[in-house]
Amino acid sequence: MMQEPLTLEMYENAKRLADERVNQGNQLLTAEVEKLRLATQKQDAEAMEQANEQIWRAQAMIQSGLTAQRSLAEKKNIQGTALQWLRKEMNLPAVEVQPQSNGFFGLSWFHIITMMLFALFTFSMIWMYFQKLKRVNVLLARLSGSTTEPGVSAGPAFLPTTITPPVEPIPVNAVIAPTKSNAWTGHLQVAGIFVETPTVKTFRLVDPASGKLPFNYLPGQFITVTLNLNNIPVKRSYTIASSPTLRDCCEITVKHEEKGTVSHYLHTQVHENDVLQCTGPSGRFTFTGQEAQSIVLIAGGVGITPMMSVIRYLTDRSWKGDIFFFFCCKDEENIIFAEEIEYLRKRFPNLHVFLVLDNLSEPTKNQFIQGPLTKDLLTRFVPEFITHRIHLCGPPPMMNAVKTMLDALQVPKENIIVEIFAGVLPPKTEPQLPEEAGKTAVVTFAKANKTAVLTPQKTILEASEDVGVNIEYSCRIGICGLCKTKLLKGKVTMDVEDGLTDEDKKQNIILACQAKACEDVVVDA
Question: Which cofactors go with this protein (predicted)?
């Protein structure tokens, strides 16, 4: 049957459909290129792949529309052009199209072009389906290849019988490559609140826009929560206890301190769906499996939170090195994450758990160790103890006792990584030095163009608060690094410098919460 020529109306309809196809493709391409740019900045591999698929679809729409436009302009055989284009997209051998001047099977040009566009759209959807199926198969293969057989360690407190042979450190997952310290400030929504012990709660935080977390972090880092209490901003830092592999949320675990302003507010006033202002991430108390082939984690009380982030991350990634975890607390009721710790211990034979309790009122089937923690316990349960990397976090009295043990065991200083929790610090009782006449210094805040009296026992941060100069802060103990300020003139002393890097020190950066001076100084604040 011969193909009838296009009427003017049919030509206009076909041209309109082709133009719409090109315009829709251009709009989709512009939107997806922007999504790809944002996903690349966040290192979100899944979003990058989805954007790339949509870009391919947009290009296919543009190409099909242009092909139709060109055929109409050159008055070519539309049906033959459509078949050739489809064969090209499906990598089929090209065939010579026999010219037909008047229709095909009695179909009009309008029907032919409409069917061609529908066929191209159907092909695009089929191609995207197979790409997604391919990704699912890869993911299933990866999961099945990393499954670990459950195992239960033997002996009291789960003493390992042998040490795992040295393993190659696993690379840090590109998806959790850390954001620059304190680079993000915004709001997170409380999606859930979980009671861990009578005095400890976990707060699950998500992006209010229902997207992925707006920042990346390493296991052991913390975020800073800012509350507006009586029109006064109050800040506290809390370690992220969840694993960085959990990309849709993060969790902070908070102990209700008797005199803790922020912890009391979180425990009594914050509910699900409330929104908190947060800044982060920050902190160098981290471990990803690259730094050493084994690790000893020693925690007390709520100091367990950075250790759980490390344990969750390493077990999520099936790290093969030995993990020795000592947790010290008052009694069985106060074991934070008790059920999860037991579950992980049974599932991962390289995780060796030792729960040291101060109060053991009755036999407990060798599940716990009578406290306090001693150097004999450390060396008994950890073969070649002094050769391992050691992370220590907890209340100051416990940490001081453990550091004394480590000194007695002659553990190399470079193997010991320490973090102090501000929430458990006792109030300072340092003696006031006599303030001699003429020895009182003056601190000048260059940006604010203000000055303040700086007595020998007052920090630059405290002096800034006296005169209304805003210097960001959180922990006030020299750990978080939020109060970093450049010293422009003079000299200061600092008791704690943990929040500073070597590069910071070279550039004359100080911690305002620690810096004290007996001479006039100028700071860039």
Answer: FAD; [2Fe-2S] cluster
